[in-house]
Design brief:
single chain; alpha+beta
């Protein structure tokens, strides 16, 4: 490095590199890097790009499956969905940018994940979000929420992309560090599958999209550090109109066979897209920076290579097709410019007006970052919560149970999320956002895809391994209750600072729990995203490993909804509820009613979960079920209430299958039976004439079956074994707090 400096802090530290990382760079290069090269290393060796603290853990995840066409390592995972079609899907985070500029952070998050799907040759068809904020009583939370929703909706709507749903949680640990995870799925024909490899020495490197500006330089290193009150960042701004044109242009270019490889320009811009495509192909690239279309005068090679200007793609094009690519770009009003070529050098060379300004071996730049396996330590709160004495939590009197249910229905973590989706355009809704797992039809077939994004951060905080396994199980159940077979998942791992032993332990345990659950359920991981350093002032978020699940419904006409349908239908529970005190661990009831986040959630029975999924899918195929809804936040009582609220407005009279004291659940208590979390169970309804068939189905799959009662009336009546009414609430009076739990804060 030759630049004169007066700042006593070494330049590599300013760029986010550690001293030992700089020494490693010098060792691998055999020389000191120049200024441009150091910047390229700083972005690609950032945690955001290099996965330095998670790569060794992620290697243990199961990634192979019968339907998997493309697994981790590409822009998105791709699975076979039949009829010669495939689904590309992935989840990514945009947490730090959204904490600084919520509108642009969410908008560019949507734009980035859409381009990842596009890079596989797929047309994006559906978007979901998984959001975490502080308490809604906080003014800044409402500001962040409003900005994120508007940014995501505006981008999706401009693209004509269906915003089909998702999940939103509110809790104190997310007050300073909101989480904005976005999921996208696209459809493609098998023969249209593309990959992000710079294959073919002599092929031309092209850039298509917006002109490159100075926005977002070093944004990925900013995303690899803790936030503080003085944090500032150059958050890139999205341009969804250009994004829409880019999708159409790239699909046309790929259809004509012009594109050998394609890569989104996301984090680290041209540097990452060039290095990653060359690394996958085992080739090199020579980039002429002066040929890159720029939006600002006087841009240096350093700025051009590190810019994160949105709505750009890197293309590897056959030499004879360059004119055609340029023509298609012009047709859509986009820059489409040749900026280099594929070489056999194994290096990423950057030239400026013919003069070499950087030359780095691709293997060093894209794959040479250190992989850390730091010391870990079990946080002290784990043993403290495991020893929590639930006897200090008073069992509520029977006459208070109804009010507790109504209060839980008003909780922003349980209440309807529909108010958050009113600004999204849904072009062809099979399901309404906020009403169960979203489903989208597959054009030209009778198939449909079901999606779910799930994680209960409190459960993961209290039991990282078990809580993550619960997240996988719940996501699988959420698509299975529609009648879909869960086939693959993507993940978004959101954690605090992994250099802290307690945080690294959380991450290690969570990945282990995910691996165990995926292996038990036979669901492979096709890719995902890791977002670390989500903490401010030493206060980390709840560990939040988001699970994005894909399910396939063979016949969309047989799909199931969550709502009760007809008078006299039987209401039943498939699976088991835990009415022991421990079932209250991490529950919304325990926090909202008693002000406690405590306990130690048990691990899920993964074999039971697999059998429940099998029974749901087979029962749907045979048309046995009228409705199905899984048990999650709020427990059995809230699930029953939702079945009444969502749709027809039918009530029900049911009996809680609670074990009595002295039976197999010695410390059984009614609040745990009604409001406990988590449980391996679903509530179903079916015509009375199907009772024997459903019982046979459950015996076949070894799934516990409990006949709870019947659908009917305009109230939900929950009784105990003796017939005593525990809760009786009208459907209308339950619907009011559920519909307005979030809406009342948003006005």
């Amino acid at each position: 490095m030759t630049e004169e400096r007066t700042n006593p802090v070494p330049l590599w530290r300013e760029m986010g590199l550690k001293d030992e990382e700089y020494k490693l760079i010098v060792e691998k290069l055999g020389r000191e890097p120049n200024y441009t090269e150091l910047g390229m290393f700083a972005v690609l060796w950032s945690e955001h790009c290099a996965y330095k603290h998670s790569k060794s853990l992620l290697r243990g995840l199961p990634t192979q499956g019968e339907k998997v066409l493309v697994g981790p390592g590409e822009n998105a995972g791709v699975v076979d969905i039949g009829h010669g079609l495939a689904c590309a899907f992935k989840i990514e985070s945009h947490n730090h940018p959204s904490a600084i500029e919520p509108y642009e952070g969410a908008a560019t998050g949507i734009g980035g994940i859409v381009r990842d799907i596009l890079a596989m040759g797929a047309k994006p068809v559906a978007a979901l979000d998984s959001l975490r904020f502080g308490p809604l009583t906080d003014e800044r939370t409402r500001f962040l929420l409003k900005g994120v929703i508007e940014g995501a909706a505006d981008y999706c709507n401009t693209l004509g992309l269906a915003g089909v749903g998702g999940e939103t949680w509110f809790g104190e640990p997310y007050r300073q560090n909101p989480l904005v995870n976005v999921f996208c799925a696209g459809i493609l024909k098998h023969e249209d599958l593309h990959r992000g490899g710079a294959y073919g020495v002599g092929n031309v490197v092209m850039i298509v999209g917006r002109a490159t500006g100075r926005d977002g330089i070093h944004a990925c290193t900013f995303a690899s550090e803790e936030l503080d009150e003085d944090t500032q960042a150059n958050v890139p701004k999205g341009h969804p109109v250009t994004g829409r044109k880019l999708i159409a242009a790239c699909l046309e270019m790929m259809k004509e066979g012009a594109v050998v490889g394609v890569q989104d320009m996301g984090a680290a811009g041209i540097t990452s897209s060039s290095a990653e495509t060359a690394s996958r192909a085992g080739t090199g690239l020579a980039i002429e920076a002066s040929r890159v279309p720029v939006a600002e005068e006087g841009m240096t090679p350093y700025e051009i290579m590190l810019s994160e200007t949105q709505e750009r793609m890197l293309l590897i094009v056959k030499p004879g097709m360059v004119d055609r690519v340029e023509s298609i770009g012009k047709k859509w009003g986009l820059n489409a410019q040749a900026i280099g070529e594929v070489t056999g050098s194994g290096c990423l060379q950057v030239l400026h007006n013919g003069q070499e300004v950087a030359s780095i071996p691709v293997s060093v730049l894209a794959e040479g970052a250190p992989v850390y396996t730091p010391e870990w330590a079990v946080p002290g709160y784990i043993d403290e919560n495991a020893a929590f004495d639930f006897s200090q939590v008073c069992v509520p009197e029977t006459e208070k149970l109804r009010d507790i249910l109504l209060d839980l229905l008003a909780s922003p973590n349980i209440a309807s999320k529909e108010p958050l989706y009113t600004s999204f355009l849904v072009s062809d809704p099979v399901t309404r956002p906020g009403y169960g797992a979203p489903i989208t039809g597959v054009e030209g077939t009778n198939k449909a895809l079901a999606f779910s994004v799930d994680c209960n951060g409190k459960l993961v905080y209290l039991n990282p391994r078990g809580g993550t396994a619960w997240a996988v199980a719940e996501a699988a159940r959420n698509v299975a209750v529609t009648g879909a077979q869960p086939v693959a998942l993507t993940n978004g791992l959101n954690f605090g600072n992994p250099e802290k032993p307690e945080i690294y332990w959380q991450l290690k345990e969570a990945v282990s729990g995910m691996s165990e659950a995926c292996r038990a359920l036979g669901i492979p991981v096709t890719g995902g995203n890791v977002s670390l350093y989500n903490e401010t002032g030493g206060q980390p978020i709840y560990p939040t490993p988001i699970i994005g699940m894909l399910g396939i419904i063979d016949d969309v006409e047989k799909r199931i909804s969550p709502s009760f349908k007809e008078e006299g239908d039987i209401v039943a529970l498939l699976g088991e509820i835990d009415s022991r005190a421990r079932a209250l661990s991490g529950s919304e009831y325990l926090e909202r009613v008693h002000g406690l986040v405590a306990g130690s959630p048990c691990d899920p029975d993964l074999q039971l979960e697999k059998r429940i999924i099998g029974a749901l899918v087979e029962g749907t195929e045979h048309g046995l079920f009228q409705s199905a809804q899984d048990l999650s936040e709020g427990g059995l009582a809230v699930t029953l209430a939702e079945c009444c609220i969502l749709g027809s407005g039918k009530g029900a009279t049911v009996c809680v299958p609670q074990a009595e004291a002295g039976e197999d659940q010695a410390d059984s208590r009614i609040d745990a039976a009604l409001f406990g979390e988590p449980n391996s169970a679903v509530v179903v309804s079916f015509k009375a004439g199907f009772l024997s068939a459903v019982e046979r189905l459950c015996r076949k799959h070894s799934v516990p079956f409990h006949n709870l009662g019947t659908v009917g009336g305009d109230s939900l009546a929950i009784k105990d074994k003796s017939g005593r009414i525990l809760i009786c609430a009208g459907v209308a009076e339950m619907k009011e707090p559920w519909q307005n739990g979030i809406k009342r804060f948003m006005s």
